[in-house]
């Protein structure tokens, strides 16, 4: 059963007399117990979408349903306020009351409107607060104040305050962005385990690819107010729809294509490196016009670096231009003629200036829509990426 169903959502703002489409004709479904991430750069419309579902933004048009109830419809002028939508929301800022203890912060939403003489209701609230603090591993912090807590503990308190409602739907607006890298990684694991244990549906906004890949059942990649690709983390990473998705979801080498042809069960792309044999994972047009709007994608971790030439296609002699040590792996910057490739390999000793052979297995090379002009095959920023129409 769908907990959230969004159809034809549009949100426009007027800036300096110009109408700007923040979200354009967006469709979204979120099933019970599912974890979905909205992923994209700043200004792509992901937070606007989240706030529209929460009732904090009024859409220009479209329909939003939560648990089968229409909470917004431009066609029928329906609008249900946030407090009646039966959801919880965790913001980027912790927003905990500094003058209240942890237990008081968590129980505050439940105590609102409860009379001080209603003892049975207060006992019920105390029991619910104690239960959620136990789940969040915060029971030992119940009498502390926010100033006595770490950032990770304050984030747990903010999450507990939302979960004490026992909602079926939780919305997250980049809740881990204020934490340091190590704590953010641990909180991702804890949040995913908690969501799976309690079974609530989660819609999570982030611009962090690692968060999206590690948390999600599905990812919706957004750009300029539009969902450009939706799928599982594996589908998004391994089969990106275009160069924008490929570049945003992780480090990548992209090579502009000048021609394409089929050879048996493979696709051969003509690039600055010569012919590259690629996996035939999807229909690819082979006419010149289509080829000129395509690129070959090779992930740095798919490249193999060795001292001897490998038999078969997709092997090039290269010069080691730079070596960056990361402990468990090494990042090589390689020059193959005028083309620059990056390769991630297990730690080994290939000094700068060394001559090596770099190999890419055909099933790790893919042809995607869009291209990056220039001699560098290394991934570039969004502003330098020219994508073909989706």
Rg (CA only): 25 Å
Return the CATH architecture of the largest domain. Answer: 3-Layer(aba) Sandwich
CATH class division of the largest domain: Alpha Beta
As a percent range, the share of strand residues is 35-45%
Number of helices: 9
Low-confidence region ranges: 378-390
| Overall domain count | 2
The portion of residues assigned to helices is 10-25%
CATH topology of the largest domain: Rossmann fold
List keywords for this structure.
disordered C terminus; 390 residues; OB fold (Dihydrolipoamide Acetyltransferase, E2P); 5-stranded antiparallel β-sheet
Report what the structure shows.
By secondary structure, this protein is α+β, with helices and mostly antiparallel strands. The chain has two domains: 2-238, Rossmann fold (3-Layer(aba) Sandwich), CATH 3.40.50; 243-384, Beta Barrel (OB fold (Dihydrolipoamide Acetyltransferase, E2P)). The protein is 23% helix and 36% strand. The chain has nine helices and 22 strands. It has helices spanning 46-54, 102-111, 119-135, 151-163, 181-198, 209-215, 233-238, 243-249, 288-291, and strands spanning 2-15, 18-31, 35-39, 61-66, 69-73, 78-79, 88-90, 169-173, 201-206, 218-223, 226-231, 253-256, 259-263, 266-271, 274-279, 294-298, 303-306, 315-325, 329-336, 339-346, 355-360, 365-369. The strands form five sheets. Strands 7-8-9-3-10-11 form a six-stranded mixed β-sheet, with helices on both faces. Strands 2-1-4-5-6 form a five-stranded antiparallel β-sheet, with helices on one face. Strands 17-21-18-19-20 form a five-stranded antiparallel β-sheet, with no helix packed on it. A hairpin with a 2-residue loop joins β19 (329-336) and β20 (339-346). α2 runs parallel beside α4 (151-163). The protein is globular, with a radius of gyration of 25 Å. The protein starts with a strand and ends in a 21-residue tail after the last strand. Mean pLDDT is 87; it is low at 378-390.
């Amino acid at each position: 059963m769908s907990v959230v169903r969004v159809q034809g959502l549009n949100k426009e703002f007027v800036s300096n007399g110009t109408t700007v489409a923040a979200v354009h004709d967006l469709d979204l479904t979120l099933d019970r117990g599912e974890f979905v991430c909205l992923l994209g750069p700043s200004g792509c419309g992901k937070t606007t979408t989240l706030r529209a579902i929460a009732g904090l933004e009024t859409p220009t048009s479209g329909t939003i349903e939560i648990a089968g109830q229409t909470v917004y419809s431009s066609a029928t002028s329906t609008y249900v306020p946030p407090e009646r939508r039966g959801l919880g929301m965790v913001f980027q800022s912790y927003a905990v009351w500094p003058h209240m203890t942890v237990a008081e912060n968590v129980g505050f939403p439940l105590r609102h409107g409860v009379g001080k003489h209603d003892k049975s209701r207060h006992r019920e609230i105390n029991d619910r607060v104690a239960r959620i603090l136990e789940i969040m591993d915060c029971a030992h912090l119940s009498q502390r104040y926010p100033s006595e807590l770490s950032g990770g503990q304050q984030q747990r308190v903010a999450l507990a305050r939302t979960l004490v409602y026992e909602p079926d739907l939780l919305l997250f607006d980049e809740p881990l962005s204020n934490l340091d890298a190590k704590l953010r990684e641990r909180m991702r694991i804890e949040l995913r385990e908690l969501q799976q244990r309690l079974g609530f549906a989660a819609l999570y906004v982030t611009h962090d690819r690692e968060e999206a890949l590690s948390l999600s059942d599905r990812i919706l990649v957004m750009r300029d107010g539009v969902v450009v690709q939706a799928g599982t983390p594996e589908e998004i990473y391994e089969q990106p729809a275009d160069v924008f998705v490929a570049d945003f979801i992780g480090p990548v080498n992209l090579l502009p294509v000048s021609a394409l042809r089929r050879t048996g069960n493979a696709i051969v792309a003509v690039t600055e490196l010569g012919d590259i044999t690629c996996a035939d994972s999807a229909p690819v047009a082979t006419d010149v016009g289509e080829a000129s709007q395509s690129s070959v994608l090779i992930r740095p971790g798919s490249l193999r670096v060795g001292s001897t030439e490998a038999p078969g296609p997709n092997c090039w002699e290269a010069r080691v231009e730079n070596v960056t040590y990361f402990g468990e792996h090494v990042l090589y910057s390689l020059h193959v003629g005028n083309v620059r490739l990056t390769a991630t390999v297990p730690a080994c000793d290939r000094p700068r200036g060394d001559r090596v052979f770099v190999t890419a297995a055909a099933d790790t090379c893919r042809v995607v829509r869009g291209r990056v002009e220039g001699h560098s095959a290394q991934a570039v920023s969004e502003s330098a990426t020219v994508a073909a129409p989706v």
